[in-house]
Design a protein that fits this description.
single chain; 263 residues; Nucleotidyltransferase, domain 5; 2 domains; 7 helices; 25% strand; globular
């Protein structure tokens, strides 16, 4: 059971969401492709899958996302796409995305045009909020999937990425993880913490979800305060303002821009 918008409820279905975009600036670039899977936490299985290209005309990031610009002329109408996405958002208890702040900002920018309400549900980042059973130094989706024995044939199209995430959730459920508890733990309030590690031990910090801030020269992570004592190194809280999963969650200032030029 988790508290959502002040109401305690059972988490049943979550919406796995990914976008491919024309660049990393949500105020300038457009969504090229959106994909979703409505996923049952109870049965550890997909319910509904949906993917569509958007009729945006051009794709400045074709070399990154592999979507030929000419293919966009066959895209469905925005009204059809938005109707399906809105229905799936309404059917979910939360939205899960890898590097969630990226997709959330793009979805919020089209919310009015599409008539969807992505901010009405909690957003959970599967890269930073979820504690996967197996720790990895790199937290991109492919690295996490492979660490849990989930094969990856291709990546970086939106539907491919949400399919990898769905199979990853199914895999950890098969190995004994309660998915509802996994998601509930990810939604706990967090504080900003610095890992007090020396340079030779930096990989230990990375494997425990910390990022290096080159300006502050600190290893930082948002983490539930009650989990700090379980870390294998000393830490200090540097921001006591709690951070919660919500449709208006802010991307941490220490997170570097994505290495690619698109989502």
């Amino acid at each position: 059971m988790v508290e959502v918008n002040g109401v305690t409820r059972k988490m049943k279905n979550v919406l796995l969401l990914d976008t491919e975009t024309g660049g990393v600036n949500h105020k300038v670039h457009k969504i090229i492709e959106v994909a979703t899977i409505l996923y049952s936490l109870e049965y550890a299985s997909p319910i509904t899958s949906f993917s569509a290209l958007l009729p945006v005309g051009d794709n400045p990031a074709e070399s990154i996302n592999g979507i030929p610009e000419g293919l966009l002329k066959y895209a469905n109408t925005t009204s059809m796409i938005s109707a399906v996405v809105d229905e799936l958002i309404c059917a979910s208890d939360a939205i899960l995305a890898h590097s969630a702040s990226f997709d959330m900002y793009f979805m919020q920018d089209v919310a009015e045009e599409w008539g969807v309400s992505p901010s009405s549900k909690p957003w959970i980042c599967t890269m930073r909020d979820i504690e996967w059973p197996k720790k990895t130094k790199h937290r991109n989706l492919v690295a996490i999937a492979l660490a849990h024995g989930v094969p990856v044939i291709a990546a970086h199209r939106a539907l491919t990425d949400v399919d990898i995430l769905a199979r990853l959730l199914t895999r950890v459920a098969e190995t004994g993880t309660n998915l509802e508890e996994l998601v509930a733990r990810a939604m706990r309030p967090k504080v900003l913490v610095e890992a007090l590690v020396d340079y030779p031990d930096r990989d230990i910090a990375y494997c425990n979800g910390f990022d290096w801030d080159p300006q502050k020269r600190q290893h930082l992570r948002e983490i539930p305060e009650e989990d700090i004592d379980a870390l294998p190194f000393k830490c200090r809280i540097i921001d006591t303002n709690t951070i919660v999963c919500s449709g208006t969650r802010q991307s941490p200032t220490y997170i570097k821009e994505p290495e690619s030029t698109a989502g």
